[in-house]
């Protein structure tokens, strides 16, 4: 009972954090779109990523509660599981697409391939989004043959001995499905990070050889984006380790680590995106100062 209570409190805490952080990103860019009737391609992808995580946080919490109260595998639970899986795959893809945009826009390569990519960035991103939707849908549908076998009825008996429901226990090789579904966006992300780091190294060496001093703004742009991408890479590796723990250890008592690991990294990465994006950071500070003024003025305090 104590474990169930602590898990429930943790889930709702993560729900509140995820809804607040991702809702703030979506709201900021919706106001920007309403004002200008357009968004930059990077802002559009970032808003899509935040909206994806906003929905995923809600449905993930519902699916977790279904599992923790030990309900049967009804059609409702199947829908929640499938929708959460689809949002999870697409979230990884949107993060990879965002890294591609940062790499193409910030890196200073002068070869013909990068010039071609910069001129066709919008078209490239559209194709990547299509690939996102198709691959996410494929990796959502494919494991269903094993997760919810067709020879079973629409529901499965409730586990005994206070066990928590584990959908992955029916998959012959869950790690293969998880690794394969994450491989392509992970490789894209790693290539983008490597190209950005190499671009920064080339830029610094070029400035030193010319003895003209560093272009501080360009170097800071490189460093800011690289720090955010490396932080996401660390979070993704931690997330993947927890996924392996939850999928490999099929005992029901360890299944809670799968849910908690899934809910941990998206909110933290979204918070990092707010900090590293000037527009979001400015909007967040404006809300903070506005709230501070509203709190202080009624009490007669003077706020800076």
From TrEMBL:
GO biological process: detection of chemical stimulus involved in sensory perception of bitter taste
Pfam families, alphabetized: TAS2R
Classification via Gene3D superfamilies: Rhodopsin 7-helix transmembrane proteins
InterPro entries (alphabetical): TAS2R
Listed transmembrane segments: 12-33, 54-73, 79-104, 124-148, 175-200, 221-244, 256-275
Keyword presence, Cytoplasm: no
Signal peptide residue numbers: none
Location in the cell: Membrane
Gene Ontology molecular function: bitter taste receptor activity; G protein-coupled receptor activity
Keyword field: G-protein coupled receptor, Membrane, Receptor, Sensory transduction, Taste, Transducer, Transmembrane, Transmembrane helix
GO cellular component: membrane
Membrane topology summary: Multi-pass membrane protein
Domain of life, per lineage: Eukaryota
Similarity comment text for this entry: Belongs to the G-protein coupled receptor T2R family.
Record-given protein name: Taste receptor type 2
Organism: Xenopus laevis
Organism lineage: Eukaryota, Metazoa, Chordata, Craniata, Vertebrata
């Amino acid at each position: 009972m104590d474990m169930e209570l602590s898990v429930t409190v943790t889930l709702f805490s993560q729900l509140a954090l995820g809804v607040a952080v991702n809702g703030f990103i979506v709201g900021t860019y919706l106001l920007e779109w309403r004002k200008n009737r357009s968004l930059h391609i990077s802002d559009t992808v970032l808003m899509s990523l935040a909206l994806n995580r906003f929905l995923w946080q809600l449905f993930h919490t519902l699916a977790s509660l279904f599992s923790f109260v030990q309900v049967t595998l009804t059609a409702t639970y199947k829908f929640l599981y499938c929708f959460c899986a689809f949002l999870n795959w697409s979230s990884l893809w949107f993060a990879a697409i965002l890294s591609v945009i940062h790499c193409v826009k910030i890196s200073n390569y002068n070869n013909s391939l990068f010039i071609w990519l910069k001129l066709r960035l919008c078209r490239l991103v559209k194709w990547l989004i299509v690939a996102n939707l198709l691959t996410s849908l494929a990796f959502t549908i494919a494991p269903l043959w094993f997760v919810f076998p067709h020879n079973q009825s629409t529901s499965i008996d409730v586990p005994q001995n206070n066990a928590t429901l584990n959908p992955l226990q029916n998959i012959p090789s869950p790690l293969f499905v998880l690794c394969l579904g994450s491989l392509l966006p992970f490789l894209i992300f790693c290539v983008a990070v490597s190209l950005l780091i190499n671009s920064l190294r080339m830029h610094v060496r070029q400035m030193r050889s010319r003895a003209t001093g560093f272009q501080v703004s360009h170097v800071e742009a490189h460093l800011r984006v690289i720090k955010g991408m490396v932080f996401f890479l660390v979070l993704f590796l931690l997330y993947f380790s927890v996924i392996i723990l939850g999928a490999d250890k099929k005992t029901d008592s360890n299944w809670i680590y799968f849910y908690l690991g899934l809910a941990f990294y998206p909110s933290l990465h979204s918070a990092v995106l707010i900090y590293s994006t000037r527009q979001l950071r400015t909007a967040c500070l404006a809300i903070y100062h506005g709230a501070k003024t509203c709190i202080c003025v009624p009490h007669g305090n003077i706020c800076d």
